[in-house]
Amino acid sequence: MSSDWHRSSPLSYADPNTVKLITQIAEDLPPELQEELLILVGSWKKEVRNARRWHFVELLGFTSEHGTHQGRAKNISSTGIFIETTEPFELGEHLHLLISFMSVPDAVSLYGQISRHTHEGIGVNFDHNIANSNLLNSVIMRQDKVIRGK
Description:
Elements lengths: L4 H4 L7 H13 L2 H14 L9 E11 L2 E10 L3 E5 L9 E6 L8 E10 L3 E6 L3 H19 L2
Antiparallel strand pairs: 1-2, 1-4, 2-3, 3-6, 4-5, 5-6
């Protein structure tokens, strides 16, 4: 049996020790190298999403051209957020969100556009440049460390 048998195997397998090792390496890197590692690891996946989603449950208020709204964040990535809400919205509608993270002292101000609408809520793609994306990735990674107690 060759040493690369897993490459042709139809099953997906990740050795838990390898995952732990990569996690330890990532935690020891400076933020800019953590971002590079995140991009590299993200390129390995076959999923169509551009950015890793993080579990993020938070009540939040946001505004649209129709006024002020409330919802509950379900998950977040550097490119967008899913908000559980029963309010009616239109695809393409622009929103302004102020999102609080326990890992940073000030709320993060983000603008976005509704890209998905389901009976559960709305998917919002953030309008931002690569610098904002890097900032949000850094905040999300710090948030994850706070939640995990590291």
